[in-house]
Amino acid sequence: MTRDTIAVLGAGAWGAALANVAAQGRRRVALWAHDPGHAETLARDRENRRHLPGLPLAHAVAPTSDLASIADARVVLAVVPAQAMRDVARAARPYLADGAAFVICAKGIERDRRHFMSEVVAEELPQARPAVLSGPSFAADVCKGLPTAVTLAAADEALAQRLCEALSTKTFRLYRSTDIRGVEIGGAAKNVFAIAAGMAAGRRLGASAQAALIARSFAELTRLGRALGARSETLMGLSGLGDLVLTCGSAQSRNFAFGQALGQGAAVQDASGGKLTEGAFTARVLIEMARKEGVEMPIAEAVDAILSLRLSVDAAIEALLMRPLKAEI
Ligand SMILES: NC(=O)C1=CN([C@@H]2O[C@H](COP(=O)(O)OP(=O)(O)OC[C@H]3O[C@@H](n4cnc5c(N)ncnc54)[C@H](O)[C@@H]3O)[C@@H](O)[C@H]2O)C=CC1
Ligand SMILES: O=C(CO)COP(=O)(O)O
């Protein structure tokens, strides 16, 4: 499978970066954009100037807005926003080859139906073999060829191994897993915690508070992950702790930057600066899942309360600090 044809759905920052990765050693990688104008601009500029300025598309990357271009792909990377995954998967259904690997690269949970991305894909693409790629990886870092390591999970370990071989490069290293649920929970939840970490930075709470917040966020992730069947080693791995540390520790993260702007006083509707902040879509559904499982997630609850304008940032910090003292679990 290593030289199998690869297509990418979604031509934002991460889609462009992964298309460049896939282009190494391949003659053509279709990069599908849902907006024909965007596909034309990419084809003309050979660069995603909005999302990845200064980082050219590899020669083999072929921007298109024609979904039929995925028909000959044995591996399709799905890199659209999580809330768009169902529509895109449904639209791809007539074109996706039987048995093709459909690798979910979005980080989020479907808000309306409370479905994980792998459940969305199972429903919309019965002919696909689903997989999930997630871990600490900023698109710009990957595009620049900086060393990066992520997890790729598929139920069938042989498929996971073959996909790791197909997608790994010298600087983009994939570790295989069969824990799809564990990998997708980590990717979705860390965006919510990154908003909280950004708020703490925006309020200048200090490095000690940042570290405490990451550790307690990890405790929340672990509790929910275990309740939903994730494996401990996944939660402690690249797609769990690894991505949490990256995203909660860098203003390069859009979720962190969004939280930071909120912490500095920006209004919820303005704080993202028009950038995709998946955590803002995931916060509510994450705590709904947690409540259903009887799992306490006070940090995620605080983020949701702030985003739904029920609590100010300062009141949320106060409430977290006033929680009863308890054992460290
Ligand atoms: N940027 C990064 O460093 C990383 C992003 N991700 C994940 O990848 C996913 C995509 O993120 P980015 O590419 O960074 O976002 P982006 O904002 O750079 O690009 C999103 C792309 O999706 C397109 N899009 C929007 N609505 C759509 C729809 N309804 N149907 C089809 N396409 C639509 C937009 O036109 C845009 O080209 C997110 O779930 C994100 O969490 C994961 C790892 C790294
Ligand atoms: O998922 C990411 C890094 O692993 C990107 O994070 P942001 O979406 O917060 O920019």
From TrEMBL:
NADPH binds at W14, H34, K107, A139, R254, L276, E278. The active site is at K190. Residues 6-159 form the Glycerol-3-phosphate dehydrogenase NAD-dependent N-terminal domain. Keywords: Cytoplasm, Lipid biosynthesis, Lipid metabolism, NAD, NADP, Nucleotide-binding, Oxidoreductase, Phospholipid biosynthesis, Phospholipid metabolism. Pathway: Membrane lipid metabolism; glycerophospholipid metabolism. The keyword NAD applies. Its EC number is 1.1.1.94. It catalyses: sn-glycerol 3-phosphate + NADP(+) = dihydroxyacetone phosphate + NADPH + H(+); sn-glycerol 3-phosphate + NAD(+) = dihydroxyacetone phosphate + NADH + H(+). Residues 179-318 form the Glycerol-3-phosphate dehydrogenase NAD-dependent C-terminal domain. It is found in: Cytoplasm. Sn-glycerol 3-phosphate binds at K107, G135, S137, K190, D243, S253, R254, N255. The keyword NADP applies. Catalyzes the reduction of the glycolytic intermediate dihydroxyacetone phosphate (DHAP) to sn-glycerol 3-phosphate (G3P), the key precursor for phospholipid synthesis. HAMAP family: NAD_Glyc3P_dehydrog. Belongs to the NAD-dependent glycerol-3-phosphate dehydrogenase family. NCBIfam families: PRK00094.1-2, PRK00094.1-4. This is Glycerol-3-phosphate dehydrogenase [NAD(P)+].
